[in-house]
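Lab meeting tomorrow. Please check the following:
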Amino acid sequence: MKRGFATARTFVGRRVGVAVAAVAMLALAPGATGDVPLINLSVYGTLGQNGWYVSSVTLDWSFSGPLYSSTGCSNMTLTADTPGTTFTCTATSLDRSTTMSLSKTIKLDQTPPTLSKLAVRAGSRRLDLSWVASSDTQLVQVMRTSNASGGKSRLVYSGTMASFRDTRVKLGTRYRYTVTAIDQAGNRAAKTLAVAAPGTLFAPMPGERVSRAPVLRWTPVKRAQYYNVQLVRGKRILSAWPTTTHFQVPRSWVYHGHRYRLQRGAYRWYVWPGLGTLSANRYGGMLGGSSFVFSPA
């Protein structure tokens, strides 16, 4: 049997800017003189990444030259996601001396990944972002925009983790973070949050709504032996002297002979560093003030 090669033409249609070429095998009977039927394939769809389509895909087969018969050459539109389905069109010349086949594999993924539970927590001179991405996510990117950058966005993270710690933040600067989950086909899901970098008093974040008694946290001060923490709601209702840089607000307490409870509403709090012994009653300048809103579930 005599064999030869011919190029079968593949056309890529609407929304697609990349053409795919295929090579087909001819089977010629001895002494055959018939014209060779060329198989033409037009593919219409939107290409994503890595050879995946991210929209419905239409296969449009056509032929050049006289034709006796064809199989597997029905025009069709794929709407269901598939990890890879191969379609093969086979044509026979009018004198049945020549056959030709052209195959095309379609990978279709129209479903974007999911992204949820985007949250931010403040630390000492840092912001910690966390999120939950679906299992089909191949890459997560974090873009940061700040009022100090004139609205310009910057890629600050690219990887597969479920969190990012930003240690390059400036006190009082407002940041907008956009977290994008990307799957194998290039489908994307994104969420955005805005936050101002807190000062010395960083947790809870200013104005943060909490559902349980919070732990107040602040940046340590050199040479401080203890701190004075004051809680205010209309008036001062609590004063404490922790030796660490955090203080657990109790659900109830006694201050100046009166019993108080943590009730629904807004609170402000302030911290001073204590220098020397507690009995010396010597303090540095106020570290700052912040607020939180207690809203029990």
Notes: Residues 1-14, 16-34 have pLDDT under 50 and may be disordered. The chain has three domains: 2-108, 115-196, 201-294.
